[in-house]
Amino acid sequence: MVSAEKLREIFSLIEKLETYSFEIGPIRPPSEGGSYSLLIRVTRNCPWRLCKFCYGTPYNREKFQLRSVEEVKKDIKNVKAMADLLKEISFRLGYGGEVNLKLGEAILSYDVTLRHNQCFINVFNWLYSGGKTVFLQDADSLIIPTKNLAEILGYLKNLFPQIERITSYARAKTLLRKTVEELGELRRLGLLRLHVGLETGDDELLKLVNKGVTASEHVEAGRRVIKAGMELSEYVMPGLGGKTFSRQHALNTARVLNKINPHYIRMRTFVPVLNTPLYEDYVRGRFKLLSPHECLREIRLLIENLDVTSRVCFDHFINPSLKGGIPIFRQSYEGYKLPEEKQLILKTIDEALKIDESKFRWTEELAGTPHL
Ligand code: SF4
Question: Which CATH class name applies to 170-372?
């Protein structure tokens, strides 16, 4: 039985939780949310904002901003203060310092507003799942000078030695400004995985969608990441070339991926997102979306031509689905291992192609979504 005095002390610790906060950006890859990564915002928004299919909409088209090392360190310090408080509350409630569901229930039963406190939720879930992974936000963290990023990583690992994996988004163009040695240093400090938007390996299409990167730059950047010992996820956008570029999109994307051989190839089927130039093109009839079967055939052509040892993942609801959102492919973050499961993917596609197109969810049904 906890005495009234002790309860008062616990309540005051819970109240203290609300006094700490840190900045959280709007997005992170689904594979990072799945592992309840701690989100640390090292920059704000996207420094490019010009890809015609995205246009920086996930960040409301807001201007890119670097954050100072001190500002980011202050955020990390606040995370540490919250983590220490949670541990302390857990001890006092008799849970041995563990962050578990009972602790969460006890805290929320005292202060229900914490249910809507993003910082509390993020730290709680992160610690509850072991506190092992961190995702650095926003769109292009590697733009930070290596020395500064190294300082942030070192500080993070120092305060939380249990962290096993730090990951981030990075633009290929930005990666080319780092040497393999610099990337290797960041790798040693815990930055183990990078998520890069390849979208397509076709130069004509890269130019058309204003990606700001060429296919050969993508290859060089990807190889550098792998050489530095990091894990690499390359994002591919089936359907990005519409009907006109479908074939060359598939073949050249396979060609580029074969040269990089990333650890992960993550599919994100193209959907015209509201307030983007490609959405305008779609609305005005200048961009012809692929039908469900055409999209599957494009993916088939890409997979057929892959000669990699990557894992191919369809870990997002926008990938080919039947009506009602029933996915055609396995939606796991670990996807299908190539080459072992190549035939399985091809067979899955061939089976899906036997289903009448009217049974599929068409991309048109998702068009105009604010962002994905
Ligand atoms: S796709 Fe990435 S690089 Fe391009 S505008 Fe969007 S966030 Fe920026």
Answer: alpha beta
